[in-house]
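input
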Amino acid sequence: MGFFTDTSVCIGCKACEVACKEWNSVPEDGLELTGMSFDNTVGLSASTWRHVAFIEQIGRPGDATTPPGDSAPGDSRWLMSSDVCKHCTEAACLDVCPTGALFRTEFGTVVVQDDVCNGCGYCVSACPFGVIARRETDGGAHKCTLCYDRLTDGQMPACAKACPTQSIQFGPLDELRERANARVSELHDQGEDEARLYLEDPADGIGGGGAFFLLLDDPEVYGLPPDPVVTTRDLPRMWRHVATAGAAMAAGALLATLRWKGTSR
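output
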């Protein structure tokens, strides 16, 4: 199970942010004015499990119809997207957690157990999307649970339930991927040539996301990495090198000891 977020119909209402906080009792973020358009949460954090990004593209660069320094109504647009934990199929946070606080649920999602987390922060640095963070008030790591308690009760996540435009859709990933590909084809037919899917491919660097997106521009425009890779992918090879080096050092030390004993006689 997972999320498909269609940013082409997001209206930036933040109903998902509010519903997430209310249902999961996530504390407020400080309510500070950031100066970044209507974005007052800036990004995902331990106290922001859903983040609505606002990107203003006024007189888009490279558009030959827009004179330098000017913009025409047709050359300007707003891009809005509700970001969330990607619930990676190959999840680095799971690989590095020393206490088992992070676990894979029966729905394929990744959840942090608050009472098991020791606040070590290994998952924070392992996440390729910068999703997980530690909360100052309790020192624990927190992120989206995809409303695990609601799923076990047969309900959809609070954010998807609250979304008025069905920008956030919830369901079996196979069905969502079919729906998403059909939506991309529809947008291409309407002239939105830049529409593309992000993290829907199981062959990508994280094995496919449990939350994937339809974007209308490059991932970097939305603050997303273009080619994310699970950060623990090279760990087995690194440990093999460490083991080989350790064995070589041990063999060298043993050989040196044997030689020393031989000469001391």
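quick obs: The chain is about 30% helix and 15% strand.
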